[in-house]
Write a structure and sequence with these properties.
The complex is a heterotrimer of chains A (496), B (295) and C (299). Chain A is built from 20 helices and 14 strands. By secondary structure, chain A is of the alpha/beta class. Chain A has two domains: 208 residues, D-Maltodextrin-Binding Protein, domain 2, CATH 3.40.190.10; 213 residues, Periplasmic binding protein-like II (D-Maltodextrin-Binding Protein, domain 2), CATH 3.40.190. The longest helix of chain B has 33 residues. The chains are: A alpha/beta (496), B mainly alpha (295), C mainly alpha (299). Chains in contact: A-B, A-C, B-C.
Chain lengths: 496, 295, 299
Amino acid sequence: MKSKRLTAALLTALFMIYSFTACSQTSAGNTPAPSPAVAAPTDSAAADSGAAPAVDAPANDASANDAPVEISIANWPQSIDAERVKMFEGYVATMKERYPNITIVPNEYAYTVDSFLPKAASGQLPTLYSTFFTETDKIIGAGYAADITDVLTELGYVQKLNPDMLALLQRDGRTYGVPNGGYNVGMAYNVSIFKEAGLVDANGIPLYPQTYEELAETAKTIKEKTGKTGLFWYTKNNQGGWMFMNLAWSYGVEFMKQENGKWISTFDSEEAVSAMQYVKDLKWKHNVIQDNLLVDGDDMFNMFGTNQVAMAYSTLDWNDPLITQTGMNRNDLSLSRVPAGPVDRVSLMGGNCYMFNPSSTKEQIEAAFKWLEVTGFSPEATELTQKGLEEKYENMLAKNLPVGPMPLRIWQSGDIAEVEEEIVNARINVDMNLWNEFCDGEGVTIHPEVPMNAQELYKAIDNIVQAVLTDENADIRVLLSEANATFQKDYLDNAQ
Amino acid sequence: MKRFRDKRTGILSFMDLKSHKGIAVYWLMFAILALMALICFLPPLWVIISSFKSPEELMKVPASLLPEKFDFNKVIDTWNKLGYLRYYWNTAVLAAGSVFFAVMVNGLAGYVLSCLKPKGSHLVLSLIIWTMLMPNTLSMVPLFKNMVDLPLIHISLINTFWPMWICAGAGAFNTLLFKNSFDSIPESLIEAAKLDGCSNLRIFTRIVLPLSIPIIMVVCIFTVNGAWGDFLLPYLVLTEPDKFTVMVHVFTAKTVMALDVQLLSLVFAIMPPIVLFFVFQRYIIAGATMGGVKE
Amino acid sequence: MNRKIAAALKRDLTSWILLGPAVVCFAVVLWQPLISGLTLSFFETKGYDAVRFVGFKNYESIVSNSEFAAALKNTFSYTSWSLVIGYFVPLITAIILNEMVHLKAFFKFACYFPTIIPSMATALLWYFMFNPGKNGVLNSLLGFAGLPASQWLQNQKLVIPLIVLTMTWRSFGGTMLIYLASLQSINQDIYEAASIDGAGFLAKIRNITLPHIAGTAGLMLIMQIIGVFQIFQEPMAMTGGGPNNASLSIMLSSYYYAFRYFDAGKSMAAGAIAFAILAILTIAYRLASARIGRGGGIA
């Protein structure tokens, strides 16, 4: 018996040792980012092109630096998407011609919540990948995005990029990504339902509600006239909290503030109570939102795109999934400003960005930026970027997506924005009257996410939204003050 | 009624079925089962048929029972566009390897733990049971790290089927199923074979496996179905499109397809495991075991 | 004497060689990852890398988090509901199916069918079934019967039993196949002898069928408790843990910690807590079954 125990103990011990060595080895293989000094020889060349971003700079680079570099590019189109594959093959051909030393490895990986962590933790991320503003905080915090400050500085991009968006990708003065498309939230209108309800002007443009009160009234009219759901309200997977921000800020809610270096949670205010009361009234007083109260963006696409619901918060970058998934006619879609609340008219800023595998070399990051330039991402309009952008919009035309409304400007200076506008204006395929009010954004305050624990805050709000929508007797004041205290205790207190 | 004569004995024997009471019990059980089968079979069938609908009709509440029209061009189009054959082949290779690992590796483990019981094997058995208690979803990240850089020998299994096969070989549940099933094999049979000078491996392949056809078939069904439907690990491991499994292929293509086509593409994806089910289920029958014991 | 030891060694050696592949697979896929995960639960983490040893701080932080009590309670609720709703369905179905002469293959297939169909199809199914509007499938049925419409998944009291019901529907076919396979090895002579002795069919179930599959049934019981205790995919897909955390489970919260907030340390700690509870349950089960005198299928 004794010897049995001993064998068991020995085996366990051996096994533990083996486990630990396995641990340390895998994490050692994961050491990120070599020091910039290693990349010294190329620094000067890149710095030169950064100081004088001439049109022909890339060509100079190519001749000066031809050490072979291999980069993998995520979000490569699937074979089923033949048009986009052709477009990407065109990019590759251009790259080959301009930068023969750069090898492009296609990678069909696309960011998903499930897959990102294993990929990142084992160092398997593609050199260049794409993600959303909502995710950047945790990605940077976990060290899964390369510090690209030096490359950006040398390229001269730092001053040219939209500072509000860039701020979302910065930590302690270092930059970990570049914005690729910026969008602010608007209100989407299903034109065909509005026509059915008679809520359109002489030109067939929906009569946009301008305040949240009008929004509820419009939703009621829709329900009375068509029997369809007036307004889609987000409730789950943190999107209930995320979209609530638009309403809450417009009602004057401040979610947190900093006092003497300490973060204080402040969403148990009267403003928050009245904003949440508005949500509750949508269900229990006006009864104008969808029956299913556990829903997120995917459900919005499915319901809005198949003409079951007339209005929903949406953004420009959701046009693609909305139309592709449901086959909705692009002419039935209109996006306008968010309604105004009693205090302000606030729209949450969202969007997506490029990030880089943290173990990329400086050469790889530079090569990835050259790739981006070929695809149309650069402050200066060159022959290359112009071609890339033209292909991008041609592709959108081919897929029946709306071309015309422009996203938020990524580049503050440089002429790319003007050139892009020209390219778009030559290809408009929608009635711009359905989009103008959104694009002009008159009176709209664009607001970035809260600075601390945004996702955890959204989760807390999700719960309250679900509670007030599923329980007529829910006490908003109690729910908010409890959530506020818990958020302070669980998260903000730990962040000091 | 003639078929009753073929019935093997069970809780209702052929004799019982001659009495009115026996017949009544039989048909009552039949009715219960028919109801269960309808509940299990009709709703998914309805969803599958719904893939003929347009997205708007598909999501409409109240839902329509049958599509307004059956557009078979959509079916042919989806088949052609997604080019299933290559992905069927990939998945078949993956599934076949998984079945081999599940039956051989776990079967052998069950055999050693049930019949041979070498000194110290109880420790392995306890470890297997205890690890079942640990939530395996959380081991996904370190598991994937191991596949990227295999401990001790440091090779990467990325872009191969090995990670999925190794996972099939680490089926704690299957191992316990096998052990549990092998426990009911009479020890005398194995002792007799040993006296005849059979090696351990030979006893396994010649006596234990043939006596356990039903449970092996069940494990085959589970493994094929699992390999066919598994998404996350293959998606992480397989980076080159020509190695993709059906599910990975369909999933990555999802973003460019409309809802109805997504659904249709999934229907094609599950056809092979359905066919294979019918192949395997035929062998979950009595006789295999008893035939062996009787000799 | 020496020869005896050598022979025993030799005998064990071949056994261990046969066990080798399984041990390697288990080590790579389960044991090393789980131990590294448990280790991580005592560390402050950056992404998936340990930064600093913090002892039980992750555990404290989780247990003191307001969600934890709800998740713990819900997890037990899932488990008990699954025993009530789910445990006997596959067992009874298998016993009945085993007697069938007609349509046996179809019944087998039909019961297993829900396991094969992809989750997108089931999601669509639940979307229509549980739609809380008056036009949802189940609410239409209630309407026919003159009953008021239900909120289904949005009802905090109904959500867990309903999720368990869908899980049972989805997975009982597989368990049924296992029972069915186990039933095949009952010696038919015993049934015949019992018939001759005049035993009714209920007596045969009680005295022959059930004792024969007791081992399997015990194994399935443990499996079911373990499986349902670790539930997270179903609530994630159907409710996201809502409404107001009414369907949040420990493992769903652990999943969120890791994948939504990249807090591996806390995620692992939540997993470790689930493990500890299961370990206690298992020990209790084994003590109980030892006292009753049944092996319970394992070990």
